[in-house]
Structures are given as C-alpha cells and as structure tokens.
Design brief:
The complex is a heterodimer of chains A (about 280) and B (about 725). Chain A is mainly alpha-helical and about 280 residues long. Chain A contains 11 helices and no strands. The longest helix of chain A is centred in the first third of the chain and has 37 residues. The two termini of chain A are about 40 Å apart. Chain B is of the alpha/beta class and about 725 residues long. Classes of the chains: A mainly alpha (about 280), B alpha/beta (about 725).
Chain lengths: ~280, ~725
C-alpha cells in the first residue's frame, strides 16, 4: 500500500486542496490550477489546516464514518437476514424468484449510482413539495444520514438477502430437516434449531461480506455526499501529500479490513466445526 | 418452453451483444465525430439539453454525449477487459499454486493477497493509476487496475482449488499415475471453469465500476483538463471519449440540483447497463459451463468458426478508412526539417521585443507584410489600458516588468502591509485580524477567488500576490472581491530590504506584519491606440465554391508580465513564428483558400481582427467556413516535450491536447476548441462561421524549441486540412 502511495507521490504532485470539509467545493479536489507547475505544489498539513493534530483528525473522521457504517450494518443485518429467511423458507415461489432476481440486480448497482439517484430524487421531491425532504449532501447526525446510509446499505442488503435465502432454501431441503419434520418437531423448532443453526456460518459470512462491500464503497459515497469520514480524509491526505494523516488513515482502514477478515475466518470455522 | 428455460441466457446475450457492438462498432455507429462540437453555427451555447441531433445532450464543450458513449465504449470496456483478464491470470495462477500445494507457499501468498485486499479498491485504484501515470493512456489504467486488484480472484481460486483437491476425482486421477500438470489441466480447470467465467464477468464489472468511481474522483485517461466557459466559469473536460472521463466532466452536486443532469446520467447509466449485461450473461454462461466440458468446445472446427466470426466482425473496421487519414498524411508530409528551418530563419530575422502601440509594432507589421506579401492595415482602437502602482514603504513599483494587474477594477487602497501564510482556512481558524491591511500572499494557497473572498471577509483592503506563491494563477484578468495585483518577488524584497517570512517559520494560516505601509492604485481607462495589422491573402484565391478559412494569429505577445524572468523570448519569437507559419501556409497545396489576419498585441487583437475581417468581400464572407485563432505567440506551448517528463502541464491545456493527439504518430484526432470571444468578434464583423482557438497556456517557463515550433505548424496545418475536408459537416 505504502509502496504504491510512494510511487504515486513520485509521479504526481497534485494541487493543494482548495477547501476545508465544506461540501460544495470538495469535488474540485483534483483540479490542478491551469498552468501550475507540479513543482510549485508543496505538501500540505491537513491537521494544521483544522488547527488540530493528525490523531484527532483521523479519529474524528473515523467516528463520522462509523456512524454511517454501523447504521448501514444494522439496517442490513436486521433487514436482510429476516427477509432472506422468509424468502428461502416461507415466501411463495414466484415472490421469492422475483425478489431474488431483484437482489441480483441490486448487487450490480454501484453505490455511487444509488447515491446520485437518491440525490436526484431528493431534489425532485423537494421541488415538488416545496420543503426540504432530506439534505442532499453534507453531514450531521440527522436527516443527513439518510442518503449515505441507503447508498451504503443497498448492495450489502441485496447480498445478505440473497445469500441467506439461497442457503436457507438449500438447508430446508436437507435430509436432517426432513428427518426433523418426520420426528414431528414443531415448525418453529425445525426452523431455528435445525435450519438457522446450520446456516449460521453463512449468516456470519454474509454479514461480514456485507461489511466489506460497505467499506469498499465508503470512499466514493463519502466523497459524493461530502461526508467527512475516513475515506474522504484518506483521499484528501493523498491529494495534498499529507503523509502522517495518510498513513494513519491507511492503518485504520487496513485494520478494519483485517479485523473483518479475521472475524470471517474465526466465525465461519467455528460454526463449521459445530455443524459438522 | 425451451425459450423460457433459456430466458436468462437470451436476455443476457442480447444485452451483452449490445455492449460488445458498442465497443467494436461504436465509432461507426456514432452520429458525430468525437470532436464535433454541437451548437457552433446556430449560436446556442453548450451544454445543450437532449434534443434533436443530440439524443443525450452535450457536455459543457458541446460534444454529443451519445457519440461519446459509443466511441468511448471501446476504451472503457477494453480497460475493464484487460484489467479483469490480468486479475484472473495473476490471481488465478497464484491462487491455484496456493490452494493446490498448500504449505509455506500458501501462507506467504495469502499474506500478500491480504495486504492487497485490506484497502478499499477505490483508494488503491487512485494511487495505482497515479503511480502508473494518468497520462499513460488506457494501458496504464488497465495495468494499474489489473496488477493491484487480483486479491479477490486469488481468494476464490485458492478456496476452490483446495476444495477440489480433496475431491475423489483428483485422487483417482493421481492414483492412476497422472502427472500433476495434467491433473490440473485435464481435471481441475474444467471443473472450476464455470466459476472462472462467472468470476471474469464479475471482475470486468468490478473494474468498470471502479473506473466510474475514479471518473467521479476526476481520475481518468488524460487527466483533468480545466477549461473556461463564456462567463469565465471553469469546468473540467475530458480530452478523449471514455466513460469515466465523461463522468469526470460533470459536476454531480450541481447536476442533481437542477443542473445538467443528463451529463451525469448518460455515462452512469451506460456503466450500470454494461455491468448488468455482463453480469447476466456471465452468470448464465457459468451455469451452462457447469454441465459442459470446456475442452469439448476447443475443437478445430469450432476454433475455425470463432476465428471466422472474429474476422467477419473486424472487417468493416479494417476496411473503413480513418476519416482523418488524408489530413494526417498531409500534415505529416510537411513535418519535415524544411518547415523548422524556415521558422528558425524567421526567428533570427524577427525584430526585437517591443511594446504595443509603439513604433516597434509598426516595424514588426512592416516586416511581416514584406516577408509574407500581406497588406498593411492601419487600425485605431479604444483599448482598456490599466495604470497600476504599488507603493511599499518608500519605494514604488509601476506596471511593466514587476507588476501585473489581476483585478480589473479601479481601486485606490492603502494600509499596513502584512504577509499572509498558507491557506485562507487557516486564517479563518486562527481568527486573523486583517482589518484595513494590504495582504501579501507569499506562500501556496487555494484559488484566487477563495482567497480574495476570505480576505474581504477578514477586512483586508487589497491583495498582492508575490509572484512565486502558487496561488492558482488567474486565466487573464477578472473581477475579484478586493483589488489584486501580482508583483515580482525580487522587486518586493528590494523595496522591503529584507526577506519575507515563510510558512515553515511561522506556520500555516498566520499573519506577519511587514512593518511598512503599502498603497495600491489601479486606474483602468479607455485610450485610443493606433496600430498596424496585416492581412495576407493566399496567392490566387480560387473558385467561388472553394472553402475559405480564416486564420488569425497574434504576432506580439503582451499583457503578460514576465515576472518569471527571461520571458522576453515570447515577444521576440512571435513575429518570426507568425512569418514562418504564414509562409508555410502559403506554400502548401491546401484544399481551401486561406486568409491570414495578423494582429498585434493582446489589446489591439479585437479591434485589429474586426478591421481585418471587414476587408473581406461579401462573397468571401459567404465562402468562409471557419475562423481559427492561434493565441499569443502562436501558441508556443502547443507541443511540449514528453508529457511524462515535464509533469504533464501541456496535457492540461486545450492546445496541449491537440498537440498530444497529433504527436502520437502524428496523432489520433484533432480537437478544435470553440472560442466564444472569437465568435463575438466574428459576429461584430458580420462573418458567421464556427470559430476555433488553438490555445497554448503552458507553464511560461519553457522557451520554444524546434519541437514546439514544428508542432505549432503541424497542428495548424492539420486543423486547416481537417476543416477543408469537413466543409459539409461545418455547413450542416
């Protein structure tokens, strides 16, 4: 990572970022002023710009990111798993087929497209009813959360729903489920003790997979919606060659990824062992 | 029944075929040339909304977005395919090694892959592409995205391989004494082929989406290019058609809140469409591959059929002549040493540097008239002439050499001089007090607009940009919140008698008293200037149906303060360059008649141009098809040394891009730049033609050399030839 970063630094000396975290001007971050010589662009101290130190800057950005990521995770898990189970076990076949087809389309929709579409919708709606429905960009623990959270969670939601539904319907056809039913166990027990317990590994895997998808689209969503999180900070640090902040961000993000990877390994192996 | 069962395959195939068709035949299908600018003749100003002729609207320059989507499909999808194949090859091979043999190799490879996968693809993509150089073209993008993104493929292949290795069929293959390579190729590969196909499709779409994200971050082939609209509003444009560049050229926030939404939806929609098509088809194909032995497909007959279909597909492309080829050949034919020699000779003979409206200008005009056989025209014009002076302590600087006007407004301000360090955000944060002060910006900072606005809010009266501060240089003068001038650093140091403080010393966002008073006086007034301009007709103007092309060139570059030091070559060389280009144009068998209008100086340009255009007869005005302006000293920066070496400054300018295109084997495409000022001037003289400006706005540091001079002539010749052969397009 850092090697690539250093290569990029050697190759490209970008312009000094022209804005603070003020939303409207952020998309100008990469426009070099015309005629500017790359040599004339010195590195820049982001922490200094905000009158703070790199750790505080990184932690603040991390907390802002956590707000939308945690909310999106909650939404994905609380919504996707029950929906997936219902689709796999109870839903009429036609409904399940239609919803699953929709999820496979939802998976292909990039987060940036969803974010842009939601912005357009919000602007349109605001124009229709002459009052602001949700803020189109910017940050704050209020209506500002709506668009980033939906944009972040839609693809993971589709992913979790799909994984769970497929695993549940496969498990429902398994021999041990038939045996359980033959024993006359109540349907509730069959569902929770047998089916859900056996696809627990898939549940963990899908939840962590969803987290990875989310983290992957975090950068572009934060950038487009001017959310002052760790993804945007990393971009800005790279742009103005603020090495300490960039390295700090890289470590935080990489740790998150590694933690999710570790959790995936631990979660799936342990569950796998139990079900075997 | 059969159709219903294969619905996914059929739908997937149709959509996929549409995407492939766009990638292969896009250029044939596109209604317009990539560099065709809509709305030139009818005076509508881009961006145009979707409507007749432009189904998806145009971008800010006026390019037809539908054509750009079709033409750009090949580049974008090509990058995605190459990068995905690279990922599959690297990730697949390493994954197979790790999964198949296990042990220490697996541990090491898995750790490496983990390193690559533990970072968001977007950021890795940004850094990778920048490391490979944004200007390195499609291959650089494909390599960057391919080499850095193989971790997912690695993970899948590793899991799949190690799972398959434990299966009975592998064991039995081994037990009959099959060699390992044979086991892998004959048994493992066919068994994971289905997954590999699905994986390839997924990777292609992943790279496509990544390209979209990079585009939104304004990282795309050729890099961002800043251009200026009629009102001076800056916008980003792409130098060549490609979907991520199209996304980059949008302003998402303003687009979604009532701006040019179509600009955003066209490329984003195309990306989503392509991703959906590729995923659908890939999944459908993978499902069928599960029940088919892929080696059964590789029959000689089948392979022959595939080759045949491919040749058939490529035939229309191979047979189609490059529409620009004659022009490129034509320009190439003149890209010989002779042209450069001519220029060099005229450079030596050209008169010395001079100021506008002086006897020197007349001498230069006479020189040009004699050398090129042109007609001398006397021009009298009212021009805005600024007088500026900056007093610092006891010394005074006046315009010329050391002082340049930037804010175009009358002003007279004075106050204690202070140096401001770093960004205006820092100033705001530190609550800097600038009430009644004259600020000297001595270090790097943001755009002048932002700086001037912030300073006004903080109460500053005026702003002096000390010339080596890298505050974004304005593109010509403009209106700013407070009076702004730019002064040479040496001159300021001389007046101060000591060094200026630096950011390193005091920190960002700080203010340092300079302990002297400063006063800044700006007077802008109209004055009458008499000048002399030259109109050159080509010998023997042809039949009335021959197109007539008007070329305007300035033979004197003024209004540019050479605070950078040895900038005088600009004035010195311009008359020589113009003379050479005029001679070269006259000597060529161009398939059009050319009238050259040579005008002196920035200030007199407009007046001289109008007077020159008024010399045309009514019949000539009817025949005119285009007006080309070559700015300043004939765009000395049109062609710069290799972009990779020079920090790519030239690629960021319109003229630079034209030159870049021609420079690749005398280039790919010509991209005439529409010039609004020029079209206003043309209208004033009642000449209704599309106007093009070849702008050169380089770093101001590189003197012209043989390459730049030759480039100038080549670009101009090619543009003239291009226009001559596209008469119908232009008149349409």
């Amino acid at each position: 990572m850092l090697i690539v970063y250093q290569l990029a630094r050697l190759r490209y000396a970008p312009s000094v970022a022209t804005s603070g975290l003020s939303p409207a001007s952020i998309p100008g971050w990469l426009i070099a002023p015309p005629g500017s010589s790359p040599l004339a662009n010195p590195s820049f101290d982001l922490a200094h710009l905000y009158g703070t130190d790199p750790p505080t800057l990184i932690v603040t950005a991390f907390l802002w990111s956590s707000a939308i990521v945690l909310l999106s995770c909650a939404l994905t898990i609380a919504g996707g798993i029950p929906l997936g189970l219902w689709l796999g076990l109870r839903a009429p076949r036609a409904v399940a087929a239609i919803v699953l087809a929709t999820t496979s389309f939802g998976l292909t929709l990039p987060a940036f497209f969803i974010a842009l579409a939601l912005q357009v919708a919000a602007v349109w709606l605001t124009a229709r009813i002459h009052s602001t429905v949700v803020p189109v960009y910017g940050y704050g623990l209020d209506g500002h959360l709506v668009i980033p959270v939906i944009a972040l969670s839609l693809a993971p939601f589709a992913y979790v729903t799909r994984m769970v539904a497929l695993a549940a319907s496969a498990a429902a056809r398994a021999d041990y489920v038939r045996t359980a039913r033959a024993k006359g166990l109540p349907e509730r027990v069959v569902t929770y003790r047998h089916i859900v317990a056996n696809i627990a590994a898939t549940l963990t895997e899908s939840a962590l997979g969803a987290l990875r998808i989310m983290l992957g689209s975090l950068v572009i969503v934060e950038y487009l919606l001017a959310w002052p999180g760790i993804g945007l900070l990393t971009l800005r640090a790279a742009n103005v060659q603020d090495v300490p902040v960039f390295i700090g961000c890289a470590i935080v993000i990489a740790s998150l990824f590694l933690a999710s990877e570790l959790a995936l390994d631990v979660g799936t192996h342990r569950r796998g062992a139990v079900s075997a | 029944m059969k159709i219903a069962r294969n619905a996914d395959m059929i739908v997937g195939f149709v959509l996929f075929a549409a995407v492939v068709a766009a990638a292969v035949y896009g250029e044939l299908l596109a209604p317009h040339d990539a560099y065709f600018v809509s709305g030139v003749l009818d005076g509508r100003s881009p961006p145009l909304e979707p409507g007749p002729g432009v189904p998806l609207g145009t971008d800010d320059v006026g390019h037809d977005l539908w054509s750009w989507l079709l033409i750009g499909a090949r580049t974008t999808l090509g990058i995605a395919l190459v990068a995905a194949v690279l990922r599959l090859l690297i990730g697949g091979a390493l994954g197979a090694i790790a999964g198949w043999q296990g042990g220490r190799k697996e541990v090491i490879l898995a750790r490496i892959a983990l390193g690559f996968s533990s970072f968001p693809a977007t950021i890795l993509g940004v850094l990778g592409v920048i490391a490979f150089n944004v200007y390195s073209g499609a291959l650089g993008f494909a390599l960057a995205l391919g080499l850095l993104g193989w971790a997912d493929v690695f993970g899948w292949t590793r899991r799949e391989t190690s799972a398959q290795e434990r299966r009975a069929y592998i064991e039995s293959a081994r037990s009959v004494g099959m060699r390992e390579e044979r086991v892998v190729l004959r048994h493992l590969v066919p068994n994971i082929a289905a997954g590999l196909i699905a994986l390839l499709a997924l990777q292609v779409s992943a790279v496509l989406l990544l390209l979209g994200e990079l585009g939104l971050l304004r990282i795309f082939i050729g890099g961002p290019v800043v251009e200026y609209g009629p009102t001076g509003r800056a916008f980003v444009s792409a130098s060549q058609p490609d979907w991520s560049g199209m996304l980059a050229a949008t302003r998402p926030i303003s687009a979604v809140s009532g701006g040019a939404l179509w600009q955003l939806l066209a490329p984003a929609g195309a990306l989503v469409f392509a991703v959906t098509a590729i995923n659908l088809f890939g999944t459908a194909l993978a499902q069928r591959a599960q029940t088919t032995n892929i080696y059964a497909l590789v029959q000689p007959k089948a392979a022959l059929a595939v080759v045949f279909v491919m040749v058939l597909t490529a035939l229309p492309l191979l047979l189609r002549p490059d529409p620009l080829q004659p022009e490129l050949d034509y320009a190439q034919a003149h890209a010989d040493g002779q042209t450069v020699d001519t220029i060099a000779r005229h450079l030596v003979e050209a008169p010395q540097p001079r100021a506008p409206g002086t006897s020197g200008a007349r001498a230069a005009a006479e020189y040009l008239a004699v050398v090129t056989g042109g007609t001398l025209l006397p021009v009298t014009a009212s021009v805005l002439t600024p007088t500026i002076s900056l007093r610092l302590g006891t010394g005074t600087l006046a315009a010329g050499g050391d002082l340049e006007l930037i804010a175009e407004d009358d002003a007279s301000v004075s106050g204690p001089a202070v140096a401001i360090l770093g960004s205006p955000f820092g100033l705001t944060r530190h609550g800097s007090e600038l009430q009644g002060r004259v600020a000297f910006a001595v270090s790097s900072g943001p755009s002048l607009d932002t700086l001037a606005n912030t300073l006004r809010e903080l109460g500053a009266r005026g702003l002096v940009l000390v010339s080596d501060s890298s505050v974004a240089a304005p593109h010509g003068r403009g209106l700013y919140a407070i009076p702004v001038v730019r002064a040479a650093r040496d001159a300021i140091l001389r007046l101060l008698g000591r060094d200026l403080p630096s950011v390193d010393e005091l920190g960002n966002g700080r203010v340092a008293d300079l302990d002297v008073d400063a006063s800044l006086v700006v007077r802008v007034a109209y004055t009458q200037v008499s000048g002399t301009d030259v109109v050159i007709r080509r010998a023997g103007i042809g039949p009335p149906d021959r197109p007539l092309i008007l070329v305007v060139a300035g033979y004197e570059e003024t209004g540019v303060i050479h605070y950078l030091g040895d900038g005088d070559w600009l004035s010195a060389s311009s008359a020589g360059l113009v003379a050479s280009v005029a001679k070269t144009l006259q000597a060529q068998p161009i398939r059009a008649d050319v009238v050259l209008l040579l005008t002196a100086g920035d200030q007199a340009n407009a007046a001289g141009l109008v007077v020159g255009l008024e010399q045309l007869s009514a019949a000539e005005r009817e025949r005119a098809i285009a007006l080309i302006a070559v700015n300043g000293a004939l765009g000395p920066f049109l062609l710069q040394p290799d972009a990779a070496d020079s920090g790519n400054t030239s690629a960021q300018t319109a003229g630079g891009r034209v030159a870049h295109k021609l420079a690749d084997a005398l280039g790919l495409r010509l991209r005439p730049q529409r010039s609004r000022t020029l079209s206003l001037i043309a209208r004033a003289a009642d000449v209704r033609v599309p106007t093009f400006a070849l702008l050169g706005a380089g770093d101001g540091l590189t003197p012209p050399n043989a390459q730049t001079e030759r480039g100038t002539v080549e670009v101009l010749l090619t543009l003239v030839a291009y226009l001559a052969s596209h008469v119908e397009d232009l008149r349409r």
